[in-house]
Amino acid sequence: MSNHMPVNRALFDDVMVPNYAPSAVIPVRGQGSRVWDQQDREYIDFAGGIAVNCLGHCHPALVGALTEQANKIWHLSNVMTNEPALRLAKKLTDNTFADKVYFANSGAESNEAALKLARRWALDNYGAEKSQIIAFKQGFHGRTFFTVTVGGQAAYSDGFGPKPGDIVHAEYNNLDSVKALISDKTCAVVMEPLQGEGGIVTPTDEFAKGVRELCNEHNALLVFDEVQTGVGRLGELYAYMDLGVTPDILTTAKALGGGFPIGAMITTTDIAKHLKIGTHGSTYGGNPLACAVAEAAFDTVNTPEVLNGVKAKAQVYVDGLNAINEKYHVFSEIRGKGLLIGAVLNENYQGKAKDFLNAAMEEGVMTLVAGANIVRFAPSLVIPNEDIIEGLARFEKAVAKLAK
Ligand SMILES: Cc1ncc(COP(=O)(O)O)c(C=O)c1O
C-alpha cells in the first residue's frame, strides 16, 4: 500500500464498518489538554477521549512507563503472570475495599466479568433460582450482549436475537421502583454511582444507601460500574468513597489506563473465590504494557494534589458555564460532580446537544454529549486552569452563534 494515499475522513466511509459517525477532524498529536489535527489546527480537549485521558495527552509519566515496559516485555497471556499486573493489583486492593482483581481490556469486559461472577456466586451459594439482575433505565454498561442487555436502553440491545434473560430495570433515584422488583431471587443490583451516558445523573444519598440496604436484606450483590466515574473523575479515587456506600463488586476501566486499553473488576476474597480456575478469562487481560501504564496513571492520580485539583477545576467549569448561561440563557442546569459535568439545554434547545458540540469543535474546543439535550465535559484531571478558561471562551463563541 502506498504511503501517499490520502488518509482522510472520506477513507473512513470506504473502509470502516459504518457503526460510528466520526467528526471530519482527524487529530494526529496531542500534548496535555491540547490536540492538533492533520491541518495543524489546535483544539482544547474537554472530552478526554470520553473520560479516558485522565492525565491529558502524552503525559510524561505514562509515556515513560510505556516506553520502559516496551523495552522489557509486551505480552505473556495469563498462562503466566507479570510484574506490572501484580503491582497494579496490589495498589488497587490497598486503596479500595477490594481484596482481589480480575483484569480485562475494556469497561464492557470488566462488567461482563462482574455479571458472570455475580451469577456464579448466587448459583454456588443459593442455587439456580437466584439469577435475577436488577439494573437501571438509562444505565450504560458496555456493548457486549450481556452488558447491553443490562444497560437501560432497549434500543441498544434490540435486534440481535434472544437476549440473556432474567434482567429487569428499575428507575434511577427511585428506591420504590427497586423495592418493587427485588426479592430473594435477585442475585445482583448493578448501578453507576453517577449515570454518565444516561445524562449525568447523581444519585441521592438516600437512594444509594437504600439500594445497599435492600441488597443486604435480600442477599444480593451490589455491583458499582465505575467505568466512567472511577480513577479520580469525581474528585475521589472512586465515587463510592464519597457516597459512603461500599459495593461488593466494582468495575473500572476508561481512565484506569489513561488512554491505554485496560479494565478491571475488583471484589472481596469471599466473592472472588467463585471464579474458580477455568471459569472465565481473557488473552490480553493484565497485559504488561497496559498494566505498566495503568500503574503510572494510578500513582499520578491517587494524590491529594490531583484529587483536590479535580474539585477546584470543577468549580472553574461550573462558574464559567454559569457565566456563559447568564449571557445567553441556553442551559436549564449545570450538573454532575468533579470533572464529569453536564450542561443541560433548556426547553428552547431540546435535541440540539450535537449542534453545540459541532459548533464548539469549529471554535477549537472538543466536548461530548450525554444524550440529545446535554453537553458533557470530561477533561483531563490535570487540565491547566488557563486551558479551561481559554476552552470556555471558545465554547462561549459557539454558544453565541447558536443562541436565539
Ligand atoms: C458506566 C460505563 N460502563 C461501561 C462502559 C463501557 O466501556 P467500554 O466502552 O470500555 O467497553 C462505559 C462507556 O461509556 C460506561 O460509561
TrEMBL record:
InterPro entries membership: Ac/SucOrn_transaminase_bac, AcOrn/SuccOrn_fam, Aminotrans_3, Aminotrans_3_PPA_site, Class-III_PLP-dep_AT, PyrdxlP-dep_Trfase, PyrdxlP-dep_Trfase_major, PyrdxlP-dep_Trfase_small
Cofactor(s) the protein requires to work: pyridoxal 5'-phosphate
SUPFAM superfamilies: PLP-dependent transferases (SSF53383)
Principal subcellular localisation of the protein: cytoplasm
Binding residues for N(2)-acetyl-L-ornithine: 143, 282
Cofactor binding, note field: Binds 1 pyridoxal phosphate per subunit.
GO terms for cellular component: cytoplasm
Pathway the protein contributes to: Amino-acid biosynthesis; L-arginine biosynthesis; N(2)-acetyl-L-ornithine from L-glutamate: step 4/4
Modified residues (N6-(pyridoxal phosphate)lysine): 254
EC number(s) stated in the UniProt entry for this protein: 2.6.1.11
Localization (cell): Cytoplasm
Note: May also have succinyldiaminopimelate aminotransferase activity, thus carrying out the corresponding step in lysine biosynthesis.
PANTHER family: AMINOTRANSFERASE CLASS III (PTHR11986), SUCCINYLORNITHINE TRANSAMINASE (PTHR11986:SF113)
Stated family: Belongs to the class-III pyridoxal-phosphate-dependent aminotransferase family. ArgD subfamily.
Name the record gives this protein: Acetylornithine aminotransferase
Organism listed in the record: Colwellia chukchiensis
